[in-house]
Amino acid sequence: MPGTLVAMPGVLPDGETVPVDGALPGTALRAVGERGFGVYLHVPFCASRCGYCDFNTYTAAELGGGVGRESYADTVLAELALAARVLGDTPPPRVDTVFVGGGTPTLLPADDLARLLDGIDRTWGLAADAEVTTEANPESVTPGSLKTLRAAGYTRISLGMQSAAAGVLAVLDRTHRPGRAAEAAREARDAGFDHVNLDLIYGTPGERAEDFAASLDQVVAAGADHVSAYALIVEDGTRLAARMRRGELPYPSDDVAADRYLAAEAALDAAGFSWYEVSNWARTEAARCRHNLLYWTGADWWGLGPGAHSHVGGVRWWNVKHPTTYAQRLAAGHSPGLAREVLTPDEMHTEDVMLRLRLASGLPLAALDDAGRAGADRALAAGLLDPVAYPRGRAVLTLRGRLLADAVVRDLLP
Fold it and tell me: How many CA atoms lie within 13 A of 184 on its CB side?
C-alpha cells in the first residue's frame, strides 16, 4: 500500500548495549550534521488512548504514580544536557529542524514547550530559518496557547484530524468533534504559524467514499498547506485489533485503501497540492516537512524522550520506553538509551533505497547495483516508474507505482 500510519514501534528492537554515559564512536562524531541535523522530542502523554494506537504513549491512569507532565520538561532538559556532553567538541553546525511529537505534546503547558525549545536553542543553536513543528490534537489547543507557541518560535503545527466523519472518529476512538480540526487549523493560521498540516487516516471500517471526500474537502477549506494521509494499519495489542478478532468490525480492505489513495491524489492535486513523498502532499516546496525530509535522506537527529530514536553518523539508538525508567536513568546521570546499532554500508544502502524511492525527487539509478538496475528496468516496463525521469538517471514512482511502492522497493534490493 502507498502509505501506512507510522510512529515509534510498540516493541523496541534488540541491539548492543548503550554505554552508561551515552558515548558515541569517534567515526560517528566526526560525521555529525554532514547531511543536516534535527531534534525529535517525544511527549508520551495522552488524555485517552485511541483504539488504533500502538505508539509509546500513556494516559494518567496508565502512569499511576509515575512521572507526570509537571516534571517532564525538566527531565527532557536533563537528557539534552547529556546529549551536549556526548557530542562535546563536535556539535552539529546548528539545528535545522525540531519536531515535537507524541502522544499529545500540547497536553504540556505551552510555556513548557517554549522552555524546551529554548533549551535546544541554548544547547546547539537553532538555524535562522529552522523549522519547528509540534503535533497537536484539535481539542488540545486554544487560540491563546497557539499564540504562545508561535511567539516561542514554533513555525509549524501538525493537527491529528484523521476524519471529518463522526462515525469514523468514533471507530478510531477520537474525542474531538467533526469540524474541530479545521477550526484549529484556522486558529493556527490566525496565530501566525507559517505552515499547518492536517493528518488523515483512510480505510477505517465503515468509512464511506463520501466520508473521505468530505474529509478532503475540509482539509482544503481549512487553509492547510500540507496534508499527510495514511492507510489504517491494525496493530496487534490494540483495542481495534481486539474488536476485529471478535468480529465486531471488518478488517481493512487493500482495495478500498487504494481507492482512497487515488481519491486523495485527485482531490489534492485539483486543490493545488503536489505529492513529495508517497503519503505527503504540500501546496508549495516551502510547505514540505523539512524534518521528515531529514529522516528520508539519511541526515542526523537526536531523539529526546522515552522511546525516542536517534541517528548520528551511522549509529542508531533508542531510549527506554517508560517515562519513569527514563527519568530514573537521567536522575542517576546515566544515558536513557536502551540499545543501539551501528549500521553497515549494506544496511544504509537498503534504507536509502527504501526511503528515497518514496520521494517525488526519486532515487538515483547510480545508487543501484546490476540486479537493482534490472529490477528498475522491469518496474519501468510495468509502468511503475516515470519514463521521463528514467533516461535522466532517476527512478521516480508513477501514480500506479506509488500504489505498489513496497513491491517496487523489493525488486530493487538484493
Answer: 27
Strand partners, 281: 227, 275
The span from the CA of 279 to the CA of 5, in Å, is 9
**Residue type (1 letter), 62:** E
C-alpha cell at 306: 522515552
Residue segments in the chain with a per-residue pLDDT below the cut of 50: 1, 3-9
Q: Scanning the structure block, which residue is given the C-alpha cell 533508542?
A: 318
Enumerate the β-bridge partners of residue 341: 316
The DSSP code for 43 is: E
Cis amide leading into 313 (omega within 30): no
Torsion sign (Cα): 188, 189, 192, 197: positive
Q: What is the pLDDT of residue 34?
A: 87
Give how far Cα 369 sits from Cα of 339, 340, 349, 359, 382, Å.
32, 28, 11, 20, 20
Phi-psi region of 73 (alpha: psi -120 to 50; beta: other; left: phi over 0): alpha
CA 303, CA 247: separation in Å to the nearest integer? 39
CATH topology of domain 26-296: TIM Barrel (3.20.20)
Provide φ and ψ at 386, rounded to 5°. -65, 120
What residues does each domain of the chain span? 26-296, 344-414
Half-sphere exposure of 347 (CA within 13 A, CB side): 7
**CA torsion 166→169→171→172, rounded to 10°?**
180
Give the per-residue pLDDT at 64.
64
